Structures are given as structure tokens and as C-alpha cells.
């Protein structure tokens, strides 16, 4: 590990202080430079890779563009702090909350509201505040209330409360804070997926009556001289079928696909014959990457392989490539397929129904996991969902820890007849 140079750090602090003084003099003695420092710390707490170098660059960018136009100031900081597309949403929410209403979070003590809005803002200017950004802002804003902080007391009534572990199991992945995401990852690491075993073509010797093994019986008779022929029994071996996971990593799946990767890693290291694929605009095989025992190393390798994170979705084209290249390799012996997607296809479901039908006929069981099922009013009305719905054996939500536990319970028992609610979903798709 590279050791830090104390002289370099001291020089960096001096340069930052000099730029801060320059900005303070240009803005008439305001606390704008200090607020940029706190804003950078907020972004770092929210998960963005912000170091001292970027803080200095942000001050220099503010000096270069000035603060006369809000748009120029926004894009100057955006150019410094945002490196990837998935970081833009967090930056946008943090910027509009931090730089619009400094007293905003004082009225949100405890983060009891899932979202809040600025006072006096029009309907079109209201900005939803994710709890992850709110948590970061609440922990990093400067405290300028003086003695009010000492007088303020917070009373917590623990009557009729419940375990936080139970609460987080029902929490939507999209609404989790950074700490809740970390706890959810630890819970996911302990999940197991006991897929029901199925009989295979091979046989094994059995101590109980089943089917007579002629060859083994004759060999036993030869040992005793052929006078007696003790019967040797056999029965079919049972083994869990292969598991194939196809996970959508498009922009609409966002937070869900990143947490579900931890689930895929836990399943891969729990059993053999697990094949994992990611798809957005193209198909990526990450099976070998997820076999690493270290989850951080596995996800780093998987992220390096998949170059289409948070982009568009070409479900039909990706399934066509899977059926053509990988179908015969991984769908043998009655594989169970988990298709994780919201069914939103940018190519208007071109060729999707044909590929879904082929995939359905090539596997033992096709289960579609859709995070949009968390909404009671959801209906498969998009062209992609309508093309996929008739060719699945099960249709389930995947938006929190409880949904993953329900999935494990479903796969642990033999497949039953098609559920009545699945027929109802198919009718909704056709309507």
C-alpha cells in the first residue's frame, strides 16, 4: 500500500486554503468555500469517490466559473465530482437540497419522511430526497445553530417497537440508506437457495426395496458359488438441477441489480452448477468472476467484465445471443432459469417473444423476478412485459429481503401446477 507523504498533504492543505481565501474575497466574505468542502464530504458519505484532490478541483472550478449563474456552478461541480452515469442521480439530489435550503434537514430530524420538498417551490421544482442522500447530508452539514444544539433533547419511546432486522427485511432496496444497504448485504451473504432435487438418469445402490439390479445380484451369487442369489436393489440418484441467472443491469434496474449481485455471489459459492449472466445492451458471462470467495473481488471482476452498466436494455437481442451461444452449454439436465428484469425494452420487444419461447422450452422452469411487482397497481402493459408474460412458469417480486426469502422457499419444493395468479397476469398482459 502506498504511504501518504506528510509534506504533500501539507502542501495540498495550503493550496486549498489559498483557493478558499481567493473565493472568499471574490464572494464578499461569504462561507461558500466552506460549504463546498461540506458538500464534498456529503457526496463522499453518500458513496461517491471524493478525495482531497477533487475538493481542491471543486474550489478551483468555482473560482473559474463564479457563482453568478446557478447552472454554471452546477455543471462545474458536476464535472469535478461525477465520473460515471450512476453517480449523477445522487449528485443531482444532493446538490439541489444542499444549495437551495440550508435549514432543510433541521426539519427532518430522524428522517421519518421518505421524501420532502422545499418550502415555496413550485410543483415542477419539487425534488424527491432519497434517504441515502438525506443520511449523508444530515451527518455532514455544518452546525450553525449555536447553543440551540445543547438545549435540544431527543426522546425515544421504545414502546411497541420491533427488531431492526425485521424492519430491514421489508425495506425496499431503492429506499435503503447506506448503512441499511451494508446490513442487507450481510444478510444476503447468509442466504441459501435449496433447490428441490430431481431424479437423474444414473442409479445408486439402495438398502431398501426398489428396483432389482441384475448385474449386482449376479455378482453376489458368484461369491457364494451360485447356489443362492441375494437380490441387490437400486434406485435413481437425485441431484439439484443447474441454476442459470440472467440479471438486467440497465438504468431502470439500478439499485436492485447491484444488491442482487451479492445474492448471485452467495448462491454461486453455496452450490455447484450455477451460471450467472448480466445483460443490458449486450450479454456478459460473469460465472467465473462470481466464483471468487471474496465478494468485493468477485464484484470488482464482474464490474470490469460488464461495460453496459446503467444503460439501455435490449432484452430480445441478449436472449437471442444466450440461446444461440450458451443455451446448449448451460441449459442441459433440466436447468432452472431466474430471469431478473423489469421487462422494459428499448427495442419495442423486437424478437423477444420468440426468444422467450425458445428459452422456456429449453429449461425445466423459468421464473421471472420483477421489482415492479412491489406496486399493487402494476400491470404488464409494456411491450416487453406482454411478450414475456406468456412464457414464464412463475412471476414474483424481487425488491426486498423478504422477496428473496420467499424465492428460496418456492425453489425448495417441487414445482406445482401453474398458479391461478399467473393466469391472471397473463390475462392482464393480453388485455
Structure description:
Helix content is 46%, strand content 11%. It has helices at residues 6-26, 32-45, 52-65, 70-81, 88-98, 131-140, 148-151, 164-169, 178-189, 214-223, 254-268, 287-290, 295-305, 315-330, 352-362, 383-388, 401-411, 420-430, and strands spanning 198-206, 211-212, 233-239, 243-248, 274-279, 283-285, 336-340, 365-369, 394-396. Residues 101-129 and 142-163 have low confidence and may be disordered.
Low-pLDDT segments, ≥5 res: 101-129, 142-163
Give the mean pLDDT. 75
Number of helices: 18
Globally, the shape reads elongated
Strand content: 5-15%
Largest sheet: 6 strands, mixed
| Alpha-beta content class | alpha/beta
Strand order of the largest sheet: 6-5-4-7-8-9
Order of helices and strands: HHHHHHHHHEEHEEHEEHHHEHEHEHH
Radius of gyration: 29 Å
- Relative helix content: 40-55%
Distance linking N and C termini: 61 Å
Q: How many strands appear in the DSSP assignment?
A: 9
Structure at a glance:
By secondary structure, this protein is of the alpha/beta class. Helix content is 46%, strand content 11%.
Descriptive tags:
alpha/beta; 46% helix; single chain; 6-stranded mixed beta sheet; 3-stranded antiparallel beta sheet
Architecture blueprint of SSEs:
Blueprint: H1 6-26, H2 32-45, H3 52-65, H4 70-81, H5 88-98, H6 131-140, H7 148-151, H8 164-169, H9 178-189, E1 198-206, E2 211-212, H10 214-223, E3 233-239, E4 243-248, H11 254-268, E5 274-279, E6 283-285, H12 287-290, H13 295-305, H14 315-330, E7 336-340, H15 352-362, E8 365-369, H16 383-388, E9 394-396, H17 401-411, H18 420-430
Parallel strand pairs: 4-5, 4-7, 7-8, 8-9
Antiparallel strand pairs: 1-3, 2-3, 5-6
Amino acid at each position: 500500500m502506498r504511504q501518504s507523504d506528510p509534506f504533500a498533504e501539507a502542501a495540498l492543505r495550503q493550496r486549498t486554503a489559498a483557493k478558499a481565501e481567493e473565493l472568499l474575497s471574490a464572494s464578499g466574505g461569504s462561507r461558500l468555500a466552506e460549504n463546498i468542502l461540506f458538500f464534498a464530504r456529503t457526496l463522499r458519505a453518500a458513496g461517491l469517490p471524493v478525495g482531497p484532490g477533487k475538493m481542491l478541483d471543486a474550489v478551483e472550478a468555482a473560482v473559474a466559473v463564479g457563482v453568478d449563474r446557478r447552472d454554471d456552478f452546477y455543471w462545474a461541480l458536476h464535472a469535478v465530482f461525477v465520473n460515471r452515469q450512476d453517480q449523477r442521480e445522487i449528485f443531482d439530489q444532493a446538490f439541489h437540497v444542499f444549495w437551495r435550503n440550508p435549514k432543510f434537514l433541521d426539519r427532518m430530524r430522524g428522517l421519518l419522511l421518505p421524501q420532502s420538498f422545499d418550502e415555496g417551490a413550485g410543483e415542477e421544482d419539487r425534488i424527491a430526497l432519497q434517504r441515502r442522500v438525506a443520511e449523508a447530508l444530515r451527518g455532514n452539514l455544518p452546525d450553525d445553530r449555536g447553543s440551540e444544539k445543547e438545549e435540544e433533547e431527543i426522546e425515544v419511546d421504545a414502546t411497541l417497537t420491533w427488531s431492526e432486522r425485521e424492519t430491514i427485511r421489508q425495506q425496499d432496496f431503492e429506499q435503503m440508506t447506506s448503512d441499511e444497504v451494508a446490513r442487507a448485504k450481510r444478510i444476503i451473504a447468509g442466504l441459501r437457495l435449496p433447490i428441490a432435487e430431481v431424479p437423474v438418469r444414473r442409479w445408486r445402490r439402495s438398502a431398501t426395496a426398489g428396483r432389482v439390479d441384475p448385474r449386482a445380484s449376479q455378482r453376489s451369487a458368484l461369491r457364494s458359488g451360485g447356489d443362492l442369489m441375494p437380490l441387490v436393489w437400486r434406485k435413481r440418484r437425485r441431484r439439484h438441477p443447474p441454476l442459470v441467472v440472467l440479471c438486467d443491469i440497465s438504468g431502470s434496474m439500478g439499485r436492485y441489480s447491484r444488491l442482487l449481485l451479492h445474492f448471485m455471489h452467495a448462491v454461486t459459492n453455496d452450490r455447484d452448477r450455477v451460471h450467472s449472466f448480466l445483460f443490458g445492451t449486450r450479454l456478459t458471462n460473469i460465472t467465473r468472476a462470481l466464483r471468487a470467495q471474496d465478494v468485493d473481488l468477485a464484484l470488482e471482476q464482474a464490474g470490469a467484465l460488464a461495460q453496459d452498466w446503467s444503460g439501455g436494455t435490449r432484452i430480445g437481442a441478449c436472449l437471442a445471443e444466450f440461446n444461440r451461444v450458451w443455451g446448449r452449454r448451460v441449459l442441459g439436465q433440466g436447468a432452472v432459469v431466474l430471469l431478473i428484469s423489469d421487462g422494459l425494452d428499448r427495442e419495442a420487444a423486437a424478437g423477444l417473444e420468440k426468444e422467450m419461447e425458445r428459452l422456456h422450452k429449453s429449461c425445466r422452469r423459468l421464473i421471472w423476478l420483477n421489482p415492479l411487482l412491489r406496486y399493487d397497481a402494476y400491470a404488464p402493459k409494456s411491450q416487453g412485459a406482454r411478450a414475456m408474460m406468456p412464457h414464464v412458469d412463475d412471476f414474483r417480486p424481487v425488491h426486498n429481503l423478504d422477496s428473496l426469502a420467499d424465492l428460496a422457499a418456492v425453489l425448495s419444493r417441487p414445482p406445482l401446477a401453474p398458479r391461478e395468479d399467473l393466469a391472471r397476469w397473463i390475462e392482464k398482459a393480453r388485455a
